[in-house]
Structure formats: C-alpha cells, structure tokens
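Q: Could you predict the 3D structure of Carbohydrate kinase PfkB domain-containing protein?
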Amino acid sequence: MESSVNRRLNAVSRHFLQPSEPNSLLHQVFLRGGQLQKQEEEAEPVIVGGMVLDIHATPSVPANPRTTTPGKVHYVLGGVARNVAECMSKLGAKPYMISAVGLDMPGNLLLEHWKSTGLSTEGIRRQQDINTAVVCNILDANGELAAAVASVEAIEKFLTPEWIHPFKCNISSAPVLMVDANLNPPALEVSCRMAAESNVPVWFEPVSVTKSRRIASVVKYITVASPNEDELVAMANALSGENTFHPISREKYSMETLFQKLKPAIWVLLEKGVKIVVVTLGPDGVFLCSKERLKSMRIGLERTKTYGFSRTLYDIVTSSCPSSSYSGATQPEGGSQIFAMHFPALPASVVRLTGAGDCLVGGTLASICAGLDFMQSVAVGIAAAKAAVEAETNVPSEFSLTTLADDAKTVYVAAKVLFHQSML
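A: Sure. Here are the predicted structure tokens for Carbohydrate kinase PfkB domain-containing protein:
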C-alpha cells in the first residue's frame, strides 16, 4: 500500500506551473515530491498557531449600552489555527498542530476535544502557568461580529521559537505549513524559515488587521496569504513602509471595479514575493491572484493515490469540477501582470459567521493535500465556509461530501477570470 508521505507530499509539488518552467520560483517552491518520497515517515500538514476558547454572546433583542441584554452565551472551540486544523481533519487530512494551552478549564475543553479527533497532541504545549487564550465575541442578531475582547497573550508568550524548533522534522517533511499571525515575530520567523529551508510552501493567515502586519518580517518565506480586504490594506502598508493604502468603502461595486480598487494593495504583496494572494470578500466570495503564468494551477507534480475520505473528496470534486475547464486561462507573458479570478460566495442560512474564513482556508488546504488543483480547492473551501456559517460551532460537526461537492461545483462553474494590464 502506498504511504501517506507519497499521497500528501506529491499533492503540493505541481501547483501553478508547467513542467517546462524549472527555474520559476513557484516551481522551486512546490517541486519537492521527488525528494520526500524517499522518507518513510508519514508526512502531515503542519499548523502552527492559536487554540482559543471562544465565548459567543448573541443578544435576542437589540442591545442597549450600560445595561444587560437578554440573549444566549455559548462556549465554542476556536482559534484560527485550531479551526483550520479541525476543518482539515474532517475533510480527510491529518494536520499536526503546534500550539499552547493551560491546565485550566478552557485548556481542558480544547485538549479533550482535540484528543477525541484522534490527532496528535505532541505539539501542544501544556503547563500550569499558561492561561489558555480566550476570546469573548459579542455578536449582533444576524450573527455578525459586533465587538470582541481577546485575551490571547499566552499564545505569544508560550508558543516560542524554543518550543517550535524541536518540531523541525515535522515542518521540513510537511506538504504545507500554515501559520497564523497570533504567533509573535520570532516564532513566525523560526517556523517559516524552517519550512523555507526544505522548500515547504507556507500559508500565512493574518488573523486580524493589527496582527496581519506581522507579515513584514517573514514575507520572503510566504507562498500564500489569505487576508480580507482590511487586512490586505494593513499588510500592503506594512510591506511598503508607508500609509499609502486605505480601507475600501463597501459600496455595491461590481467585482471588476472592486478588484481594480484592491489591485494596488494586492500588487504590493505579489511584488514582495508572495506567490498567491487569496483575498476573502465575505458575502462577495474570493479573489485569487498571482503574477505567475497559470494553467490549471495543479499542485502535485505527480498525483498519487489517496485513501478514505481524501480519496472520495478527490474523486467526487474532480468529476464535477474538471481542472481542464480553465486550462486556457493564461495571462499574457511579462512579470508585471496580475492574473486574477473571482469565485463567488454561496447563499446560506446564516447562524453565525465567526468560523467562515477559517473553514475556507481549512477546506482549501485539505483539498490541496488531497491532490486537487488550487482552483478546485478554493471552490471546496468556499463550500466549507458555507457549511460553517450554517452551524452553531466554528467548524461543522461533520461535512456532507455530496453537498460539499455540489456547492463546490456551483462556485467553480460561476468563477470568472479577470485580466488586467501591467502595473508598471
């Protein structure tokens, strides 16, 4: 039987480029299956970042200041990295989590649930003096975040380079590393550098406007970044060293107009070396952007077999979303072009929105690890995000493969290629 190392490592080696372009940066980043096929250990995607207990407070009537408001309060397992990893696990991947929690009630809740998934807890630091990260989210009646207070100092204090470095073997053999910006800059640096030394693709999840600026110190290592519009603006300002970019007022723009407004900020990230920018647009979907000449955006150089849920995910999505659909979507030659695609969101019966972005990333990463190309994977990610907003928890208790594939097909078929002129 073929090992998981072959299944997962080859799933990240043929992404974006044709084999005739061996000197391309993307080729160098993703073409690594041949080296790692020889390893006998099972390779797992590595997720480094926060495990957080979310407290969701939802008023049942419009809230008034300076008084209590009737409503419901729920404890929900959260943290960007934890949510992404849980979503991946429910879609057939087996992520290796590196994080930190305390021996307190929130830490016990988080760790017991993690153990119940059957995933490794070796990378999760636990000790008495850690106060587990907790975020209190105040939601409005529509499930939108109205305000929040985050007590997440433990992630920065205890998820240190000294804790992360012993997991170098896990990171260097991983098909992909995802880091969230809850990490302090030294921890981000060591995580991303260890991945880069082994040509492991790095996905940067910005977490918040404030923390998104931490990309500045590690941008040379980043393969994919997934900001929302406000995080994109903050990241572009941090990378350019100027306060040039400003949040976009959300009028009812066409997608072409919205892209034109965001394009200068996207260009800054691409010019600084980020290979792929996934801009999340909430109810308007996703922009997928790159400078490279793209074909079907296949990650694996040679797709290997997957088993169980991952295999079924691969088969059902490829049958409904053939990668050849966009095989002709290449941009004109020249390094100063942006290739951009818009993927629409799906209508949903919204319960809460707090896990949508994390499940979009988790669904995309799980699909990449299953061997799907990047555009297929984004479609699955959007389908996973729809399932998340219809659930009480940040990550649905389970995913229906049939529903996921049907929703992914709807997104994939409606995706639109955008071509724009040189930025120079």
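Q: Anything worth pointing out?
A: Residues 1-41, 295-305, 327-332 have pLDDT under 50 and may be disordered.
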